[in-house]
Fold each of these.
Amino acid sequence: MDTRNLGSVEPLTVSALGLGCMGMSEFYGTRDEAEATRTIHRSLDLGATFLDTADMYGPFTNEKLVGAAVAGRRDEVQLATKFGNERRADGSRVGINGRPEYVKSACDASLERLGVETIDLYYQHRVDPDVPIEETVGAMADLVSAGKVRHLGLSEASAATIRRAHAVHPITALQTEYSLFTRDLEDDIAPVLRELGISLVPYSPLGRGLLTGAITSPDDLDAEDRRRSEYFPRFSGDNIHANLRLVEAVRDLARQKDCTPGQLALAWVLAQQTTDLSVVPIPGTKRVRYLEENLGALDVELTADDLAALETAVPRDAVAGARYGDMSSIDA
């Protein structure tokens, strides 16, 4: 497995492709903890050792699942988790919380659930508009000083917020949605990441599964799959039919490259790495067979012509529907 460095200040070396673990516990249909554990173990066996979770997934159960799965193999893993989307044990939402005292209590709780002494990369999951980012990152920096956290990250933060945060303590990575279907960050955020030496960790690099080609209609999703709700407009009404036409264009190009549509889409994200911006996608899956398919993207080599063909097939503004039905939690 190739590796990539996150951040420019004491970089964190991770596998070139990570594993998003959220769907193993919530949001994307039925759960199977045994298969999820097998998927994590297979990921480690194949060298994809950068694992991503958060306290709000489950809530709380995903960190426990990941912690149990990596027990005895901690030294192999680069472990990332997040705080800030506060939820109760019954799943109800409290709101976004960036208060310094909460940062520290949330970290202690995550360490206990994960069964580890240190978190490799600790993200603020969403920016709290009611708490100055300097106060939140100051509390996160205290966790680094205490040895509880090695590196700091932000998720879905604006360019201005990133600058302010980085002035308090070096930010290693920004996690945000990025794929052929979501390229908003290229205008304002990516230039700041390059300038400050902050890396990009794209979540949903497969367009929440649309770019795999496995979804042909909302009926392909489990009844309890949240993608069937109004929270994900790209999967509903006329939007999904327009978006599936774009996927068909990706499928045609994938045939020419002798790979799957998902592998081609992931290869495009991986190819966005430059000398001044490290990019490490974290496609999520809860099944071994999809994990293995995703890792096949590392073997797909794209030429400049291939990249141009993909971007012509999926014009940046062609995707129908907002990425969330409610974008109010996204820092702007």
Note: The chain has a mean pLDDT of 96.
Amino acid sequence: MLVLTRKTGQEIVIDGEIRITVTSIGDGRVKLGISAPSHVKVDRAEVAARIAAEEADAAVLVCG
């Protein structure tokens, strides 16, 4: 894991095409803006976990 310190307005670039921008910091929260090409799926971890669980459940029903 890479850990970086950034200030509001600063960015991190991943693979030359994904940009993560710190939009605000305060009250125990950091807000991030994410710009990525349309073929890159971006989800919060809990959403990705829920989608994976739903897909696994669907696979069990199909393969049964």
Note: The chain has a mean pLDDT of 93.
Amino acid sequence: MAKLVVFYSRADENYFGGAYRYIEVGNTEKAANMIAAATGAELFKIEQAEPYAADYDTCIEQAKKDLQAKARPELARTLGSLDGYDEIYLGYPNYWGDMPMAVYTFLEAFDWTGKTIHPFCTHEGSGLAGTERKIQQTCKGAKVEKGLAIHGSSVDGAKAAVEKWV
């Protein structure tokens, strides 16, 4: 059985420990690439059909509004099935103490019975914030392992921590 790294990540303007900075590759995507390299897993990026704004302040307001509404944004594309994958590494930024709502859109589309999920997130101080429990509640029948939280502003130096975790 194969491994899969599924992740939601956002480039554009991001927040790094008190300052805004434009990035071309999102922090979670950088971590996902490290995990794929360490495990030989395939990659799948969760993308919204209507992405959030490029500027950070507008983006977080959009994400907060979706969270409050428990929205399930439409995805640009999805996988037909998770058949053939037994281990899934699930990555996301921590938005308002939770996963982006598009991650829930993805998770709710599949039967997770018999799958093992390894959650990982990027954050600027909130850590995993209970998302492991939320994944377990959403992905009935899956085994959810202990997750990895990476400070987004430190992701470029996180290779050793990622390799130890996997």
Note: The chain is about 30% helix and 25% strand.
Amino acid sequence: MRNWVLMTLALLVHGVAYGAGDATAGKKYFTSWCGNCHKVGTYARGSFGPELNAIFGRKAGTTEDFNYSEAMKASGIVWNEETLAAYLKDPDKVVPGTKMRFWGMSNEQQIADLLAYLATFQNKGQ
């Protein structure tokens, strides 16, 4: 509990708390930046990237319908708001050797919005 409180305070001090995102705005970012490779929703399946339903709490590199890089499978990451936000900021820094070809996002509000949108799919496709 203490670590969670400290991480939340750190997020508030450094900018936007990721749980405060706007899912409607996040949908626009997902469509523009993520949707060509990743899918969400009832019929989402891995394609050029893994499907992102129920991403929070999932161990990185574990969906069965996508061929992950060895780096991602060995990363030991469990996706939560903090780990996913860091990955969205700089994928190559968080998982050197990742197959994801994305330059990263620097705007913390956009990241918060995207995470809020992904959270709307936390109980889909299970």
Note: The chain has six helices and no strands.
